[in-house]
Structures are given as C-alpha cells and as structure tokens.
Queue: 4 jobs
Job 1
Amino acid sequence: MSTAVQIVNKSHHPLPEYATTGSSGMDIRAFLTSPITMAPMERVLIPTGLFLALPENWEAQIRPRSGLAIKQGLTCLNTPGTIDADYRGELKVILINLSNEPQLITDGDRIAQMVFQKVEKVILEKVETIEATERGVGGFGHTGKK
C-alpha cells in the first residue's frame, strides 16, 4: 500500500519519480538560475524548488547518487539528510566535490535521491546497567578483515 505525500514544485522540472519499479529512491534535480562550478573540496547548498508535507511518523532521506559519486566525485554531506515530518521549507541538498577537478552543476541535473521511510518513535528508559552481549564494547572495525 502506498502512502500519499503532498509536494509543491516551484521549479520547472518534473516531479521526482521512481526510475524503475524496483527503485527505492526518487531522483532530485537542481533548481538553479545559473550554473555552479564547484572547486575541489567545496561544499554548496543546492536548491530544488520542492516543498513536502510528510505524514506524521514519516521522514524523507536525501542520499547521494552512486553515478554522480563515482563519475564526478560529487556526494551529499550529512548523509542521509533527514527531512522531518514537520519541516515545510524548501528541500536543499548539501553537495561536496571530493574530486581533484572542478565540477559543474547545471539547472535540472539529478543531484541526489530521496527515499521515504516510516519512523518508529521510542521511549528512552533510564537504567543503571544494560545487558552484556558477546560483542560487548567492540566497534569501529573490531572484527578485523575477513
């Protein structure tokens, strides 16, 4: 069953859509009045012209596009970026150029993908100790290379 999400599109680009029946994310396009050249290691906030009204207990996650990352070295910071259900501002994407070359972003370029996710709320219960596990405090590569 699909969930309806209200969207306002102030850009002249088509609404985001799933590229294939198996796609998890919808491509998001840049909405620019003029092209942006990103220097190596430069961060830029890219407008989309899109505004969402998400149902309560839902979020939209903004994620990098794999092709943009491997071909141009462009990726999203704050990944995944979370759009909360009560946010009503324009969706903007934080891009960074991790390549050694300047990269050009033009109006209509597909810059990220948007995935919708239901959010389960929890209640934090303060305790003095937590249950031990086999892993314990091991983290950050504690299992080594296999």
Job 2
Amino acid sequence: MDRLAGIRACVFDAYGTIFDFASAAARCSEIPDDKRAALTNLWRDKQVQYTWLRSLEDRYADFWQVTGEALDFTLETLGIATPALRERLMELYLTLSAFPEVPETLRQLKEAGFVTAILSNGSPMMLDAVVRGAGLQDLFDRVLSADAVKVFKTHPRVYEYCQRQLGVRAAQVSFQSSNAWDAYAASAFGMRVVWCNRYGQQRERLPGAPDREVRTLAALPALLAPPA
C-alpha cells in the first residue's frame, strides 16, 4: 500500500486517541467494581452527545462544563452521586493516561519532520493539564482547542481553524482520531485521515471516508511519506 504523500502536519484528536478516557474511572477506587465499566461508557457517551446537542442548539459551553454535566447525569443514573466522587473523577480527568505507543509514535513523527498537533474539543485548561500530566508537552508543536471557535467537532469551523493555525492546506494534514464520527468529518472537510479504530467500531454511513484504518497509533509513521 502506498504511503500518504504530501503530508506536512500530523494532527490528533485527544480523548480516546492520545489519552485513555477509561483511565479516570480505572484509577478511582471509590467506584463499585460492578459499575466501573458502565460509568466510563455512559459518561463518554453523554459527554459526546452534549457537544453535538449544544452545537446544534448554538448554546456553547466549554468542554470542562460539558464533561461535568455528563458526569452528573451518569452518577445520578447509576445511583452513586456524591460530591466527593464527582470531585475525584473530575480531578482524574485532568491526568488521563496516554496510550502506551503514543510517546514513541510522536517522537518518530517529529524526527521525520512532521509538525505535530492536537485538535480537540477539550478546553485549553484541560488540554494543558492532560498533556503536561502525561509528559508530552515537548512532543506537540501546537495544542488547539475548539474553544477558540466556540463550537464543537464535527462542525467544519473546527477543522478550518486547525488548518489556519498550522498554515497548511487541508490535504496536507494527516488527521488521526479514534472516534469514527470525527474521522469521517475531517475527511469530508478535505483532510487525509487515519482512523485509529481502537475499539473495533463499524464504519460509519456518513460523508467522508478515512484513507487508512489502524488499531493503534504505532502503525502511523509507516503510513506517511516524509515531508519534502
């Protein structure tokens, strides 16, 4: 298979792609074992749903607020809502673990001459905390937040903001996301896309189509021709 050519910037979604959102609940001993998986899944589902709904309603609130509101819904649904548990989980969300292959993958990309960046719904405060907590601050050239344009992915304005900030054309970006909806939207916008399908999702029936599909980011450097 030919390498993707003409790429200048490698841009990554944050949550689920670089950082394991399940690691917050995994490190919280206060959660009953029989509710840990349900909490992780429902929290993430509501978090994403709220970003889409707020974008449709044109009622933007930053990702920290959205994450807290999604957690409130989840804790109440599971019958384990306490102020102390909420506070602990929100703290843990600022120190999510990076997936194991991430540091070496980023090092390889930077050594090859690619610009590396994050493009995330996360607020600037959240992204600064999680990048620093994982020790990745020297491996990203830019960390870009949808907060700058006050709307969430998959709105085209977010992807446009990314290309403008990096000074590249959409086709010069290799965009990586574990979220199929994000991968397809970036492709429809005109970016080249490597879908990191960590969770074995089915292909979406949406505009766009990822150029490549991998299970971990470790496969990424071999898919990209070095920038000229």
Job 3
Amino acid sequence: MNQLPKTRHSLVARLADTDNGKAWNEFLEIYEQVIYRYACSRGLQAADAENVTQQVLEAVMLKSRTWDASAGGSFGAWLFRVTRNLAAKTWNEREKGAVPLSDGGGSWLADEPSPLAEEQSIFQFEYRKALFHWAAMRVRDRFAPQTWDAFWQGMVQLRAPDQIAEDLGLSRSSVYVAKCRVLRRIRSEIERFEHEFAQHLEVD
C-alpha cells in the first residue's frame, strides 16, 4: 500500500500561528489541489468539491491549534480521513437530496472508517503530482527558457526527444542533459520540503 503523505509536527504547529503566512502558503499550494482533486475523483461536481476543500481546510485550522503528536497517530492519516469522510458525506447527501452538508457538530471529524487502499492510492497520487508541480514552478526561473522547454516537453508533454531537439534547435544529447538538470533541481526542492515538513510524523 502506498504511504500517505507525512506531515511534520513543526508544520502543524506553524499552521496554528495565523500570522505565519509562509507555512500556510506552502500548505495550500500543495494540499488544496490534492483535496480538491481527490473529492472530484469520488464523483463530486466542482462546486461540491470546492465546498469539501474549504471545509477540510477549516478543519485543518482548528486541528492545528490542538494537535498533539505525543498522543500518537498521524496528521497525514487524519487529513486523509477527514477528506474522505467529507467527500463521502457530501456524495451521500447529494444523492439523498435536501440534507444540509453541515451537521453543526462536526461529527465527521470523529468518524474513522477503515481507509481503503484504492482511495489512499488516489490521495497519494494527487499529493505526489501536486508536489511535483509545486517544486517545478519554484525552480523554473533558474533555467534558460530553452532548457526548461526541453524538460517540460519531454517530461510532462511526453514528446519524443528527436521532436524536441528539432523544434528547439538542440542536439538529442542536449535534450537529455536539460531533462536531467531540471529533474535534479526539482528532486532537490522536493527533498527540502519533505525534510523540513514531512519527516517527523509517520503514517499509521
């Protein structure tokens, strides 16, 4: 089974500080899309997926103020459960028709159904994808446009190296070098993030 993303207690503690914009910006840049795309993968329409995303983020804000790593458990696993529960709750209520999404008591926070391997895999896939794009955008300006285009066309658009080389006026070997250089920098950025924010709490 794929592991859920790990989230370090230092990040959780920093999220509790509402004045710490950097922590929230990095959290939102990665996790907001993860939550939204996971909700969509469960069959929700865009408006419902956005509603679920906002409620999960509100739950994160509340949880960050009281999170106790010493009590055991994982913030990453908790985040997955809340996202999964809210997505399922929203789907069921839309299927039934007229039941309000919020029950006023936040009982969905306490619901902990056994996570399904398939759903964990979807959540993990969306996390890795969001983390890759986040890291890629952070390093993009460090490369010449031609180098970046060679990497992006090959890695993301999946174009053949010969086509990229012809279009950009590069040799085939230069295309490979460009891909390796950018990938190395992206991996370094991801490792920095995961070392800083994702090392402490392990997933149950």
Job 4
Amino acid sequence: MELDRIDMAILEHLQTHGRATTIELSEAVALSPSPSHRRVKMLEDAGIIRGYVAVLDQEKVGLPVNAFVTVKLSLHSDAALANFERAIEACPEVMEMYEMTGARDYLMRVVAPDLGAFEAFLRGVVMRITGVQSVESAMALKRIVYRTKLPLRQRGK
C-alpha cells in the first residue's frame, strides 16, 4: 500500500492520540469524517495499524527493573532457532526480542518487579531452554529515551 500525505498525517496523529474520535482525527488532518474513517479502516486492513494500546507507567505498575539480555545458542539450525523463539514468545516478562548479527544471537528487553524475580526468570526459564549456550545481562539504571511513536515525518514525505 502506497502511503500518501493524508495517510501519513493520520498515522502521525494516531500515534500520539490513539483514542481520537473520527471527528477529532478528521479535523487534525483536514479531511471530512467519512473519508477519514475509510482511510483508517484501510490502514488497519493493510496491517499498517496493528492495534491500539494504553501505554502504562512501568514503575507505577510494579515492574521497575529493565534488563537487557543477550543469548548465544549452541546450534543455529532452523529448528533450534524456532525452538528458542517459541519458548521466549511465551514469556510475558520479555517485552522485546531481536535476532542479532555479531557474537550474540538474540537481544531481549526483560521487565521484572525486582532483581530476585529477574534472576528466577533467567535461571528458571532462559537457561533451561534447550540449546542456550550462554547468557549475558545488563541492568538499566535509568531510562533516558522511550518512544512508541515512529518518526514518520523524517521519511521525506
């Protein structure tokens, strides 16, 4: 799907105002409500808008620990990679996971209520997954930048 200026404006607005009504959105992008609604529906159907969420304050809900974990697997077959990925997908503590280039195979951001819970997750879950060769972790001291909004306007459109 080719995105035009109005689509980009809709996406830009919804990233900041996910609960905007059709009227509010149409005013923000200078389009009448009916075409605004149709465009949002097309963006949803195309999978560009994947869903709507509430962004929570991690500390206020009792999950202040952010840990970044790198994992190296002993085997790199498709089956070994799929097994590890499937096991991690089932872990709600893992907020993000990326397959990486370089010395490590995966990078994960893990949240926990405290260091004990994080250690229990590492020892009780990650280290028990078949094929895990080594794990390294780094604890975040303070979040400096956190965004959920993609920089759409910087794409040159």
